[in-house]
Amino acid sequence: MADRLSLIEAKLHEMDASIALLARRIDGLQEALRQSGLETITQETLEPGVSVAPAVAQSEPGRADATRLIVLVGRTCIVFGGAFLLRALTESGRVPSSTGVWLGLAYGLTWLIVADRARGASAMFHGITALLITLPLVLEAATRFQVLTSVGSAIALGATGLAAMAVAWRQRMHELAGAALLGGIATSFALALVVGAWAPYALLLIVLGIGALWIGYARDWPWLAWPAAAAATLATVAVAVRASATPAREEPLLALALHALLIAAYLGSFLLRVVLHDRHVGAFEVTQTAVALTVGLVGAFTVASARGLSTVSIGIPALIAGTVLYIQTFGRVAARRGLGRTFYFTGMTALALTLAGISLLVPAPWQSVVIASGSLAVGLLAWWVRHPMLALQGGISAVVAAAQSGLVGMATRTWLGTFDVWPSIAAPIWVVLAAAATALAIPRTERREEPASLVSAARISLAVAAAVGLASVVLTGVGRLVTDSPIDRGVVATLRTVVLAAAAVALAAGGRTRRFAELGWLVYPILAIGALKILGEDLRLSDPATLFVALALYGVALIAAPKVLKRA
Question: Which residues, 6+ apart, have CB-to-CB distance to 473 below 8 Å?
Answer without folding.
Answer: 425, 433
